[in-house]
UniProtKB/TrEMBL annotation:
It comes from the Bacteria. It comes from Kiloniella spongiae. Keywords: Membrane, Transmembrane, Transmembrane helix. Residues 9-147 form the DUF1468 domain. This is DUF1468 domain-containing protein. The lineage of its organism: Bacteria, Pseudomonadati, Pseudomonadota, Alphaproteobacteria, Rhodospirillales. Pfam families: TctB. The chain crosses the membrane at residues 40-61, 82-115, 121-139. The keyword Membrane applies. The keyword Transmembrane helix applies.
Length: 159
């Protein structure tokens, strides 16, 4: 059996896309949304289809270099950065309610950019803070999706 890094990654993403697509069908809809062209399920289902198609193509298209050992696929990868990014994702999930969207997302992006090797603070801050504020503006102001400011800021603002 030959398995390259690209094929192993494509197989993992194909499995995730199928599982995500199956779960996306269970997203509840508001009454009357059954006949709407765009619902809460539309983007997750489209994302799962797109991911599934791309990962399937990566699986079936020919690859230049192949290896016989399944474990050699995972050798030479930078596992330290992977675990740091996973820890940052867990940190983001845990701090989203207490710190709110803006602060926790900015901290997540700052930590992620730093973990990936960028050391210039001007680049880190000028890429993470505007991205966070821009995404917040799109979600909150343009699309009308309420993003809670965070429990800490709610307590500070309470009389």
């Amino acid at each position: 059996m030959t398995l390259s890094k690209e094929k192993a990654g494509a197989l993992c993403f194909l499995v995730l896309a199928i599982a995500y697509g199956m779960e996306a069908r269970h997203i509840p809809l508001f009454p009357g949304d059954e006949l709407e062209p765009f619902t809460a399920r539309t983007m997750p289902i489209a994302l799962s289809w797109l991911t599934g198609i791309v990962s399937f193509l990566l699986l079936v298209l020919p690859q230049r270099e192949e290896t016989d050992d399944i474990f050699s696929v995972f050798r030479g990868l930078n596992w330290g950065k992977t675990f740091v990014l996973i820890a940052l994702m867990v940190f983001y999930g845990l701090t989203l309610s207490p710190l709110g969207f803006l602060l926790s997302t900015a901290l997540f992006l700052i930590g992620g950019i730093y973990a990936l090797g960028e050391r210039r603070w001007s680049v880190i801050l000028l890429s993470s803070v505007p991205a966070t504020v821009g995404f917040w503006f799109i979600l909150d102001k343009l699309l009308g999706i309420y993003l809670a400011p965070g429990e800490i800021f709610t307590m500070l603002g309470a009389n």
